[in-house]
Specification:
The protein is an alpha/beta fold. It contains 6 helices and 10 strands; from the N terminus they run E-E-E-H-E-H-E-H-E-E-E-H-E-H-E-H. The strands form 2 sheets. The chain has a 5-stranded mixed β-sheet with strand order 3-2-1-4-5, sandwiched between helices. Strands 8-7-6-9-10 form a 5-stranded mixed β-sheet, with helices on both faces. Strand 4, helix 2 and strand 5 form a beta-alpha-beta unit. The two termini are 18 Å apart.
């Protein structure tokens, strides 16, 4: 997935949804509004299906945007919780079908990495999500947010080896696990941020920047039997 800069000339109103990890989140991005994004996020491990629709309604009401005014729907497609991904993707597909607007998939790892590259484009970054049993979902990004590989399932040790190629920031809900297993005789990561879920505002921004509006939106599962990684991407610059 190739992601460019945020559109600036044409108005876009994007509904963003994230239920991939430990939050249920929704946002409206309006590229013509000065404040830009209206968002809400509820920390939760389960219960996304019951919480999502009221949350979307609340965000749209607060932003004063109706379904007919949406230009696209962005949703995190994974990796993440099996049930959570299905909830978010099903909602995005349903709204897209009802409104006749395209749905756009955003990988959870790219959404985790995006705000850190917005703050500092230099240096590498490893985005990691806990896959349990001493494994993580991971993706390594180079300076400027250029992906250095597709999202994949790896052992904690393999993720550490990938991060040790150079000074690296590590972000995601498995970042602390990586830090705890880091060899004592190796240079420590530049930054370790154990953010539990993506900032849904960045799901909206990545969705607004997406060029391909025709690809079907499907959950990105990286399990042993059904690993179908999407093409890696480049994160947008502010």
């Amino acid at each position: 997935m190739m992601v460019g800069r945020e559109p600036r000339s044409n108005r876009l109103r994007v509904l963003a949804i994230d239920t991939a990890l430990e939050a249920c989140s929704a946002a409206i991005l309006d590229t013509e509004r000065e404040d830009g994004v209206t968002s809400r996020s509820l920390p939760m491990v389960r219960g996304h299906a019951e919480a999502l629709v009221p949350l979307i309604a609340a965000v749209m009401s607060e932003a004063n945007v109706g379904f007919a005014e949406l230009d696209r729907i962005a949703v995190t497609v994974g990796p993440g919780s099996f049930t959570g991904l299905r909830v978010g993707v099903a909602a995005a597909r349903g709204i897209a079908l009802a409104t006749g607007r395209p749905a756009v998939g955003v990988t959870t790892l790219a959404a985790l990495a995006a705000p850190f590259f917005a703050a500092d484009e230099s240096g590498a970054l490893l985005a990691v999500i806990n896959a349990r049993h001493d494994r993580v979902y991971m993706q390594l990004f180079g300076p400027g947010g250029c992906s250095l590989g597709a999202p994949r399932l790896a052992s904690t040790l393999n993720a550490i080896h990938a991060a040790m190629a150079g000074p690296t920031r590590i972000v995601g809900n498995a970042a602390k696990l990586i830090e705890e297993a880091w060899p004592d005789d190796e240079q420590r990561p530049l930054l370790v941020s154990g953010v539990p879920a993506p900032d849904v505002a960045w799901v909206a921004r990545l969705g607004a920047a997406a060029d391909d509006l025709t690809a079907p939106v499907r959950p990105l599962y990286l399990g042993d039997a059904d690993a179908h990684p999407q093409e890696a991407g480049i994160l947008p610059r502010r």
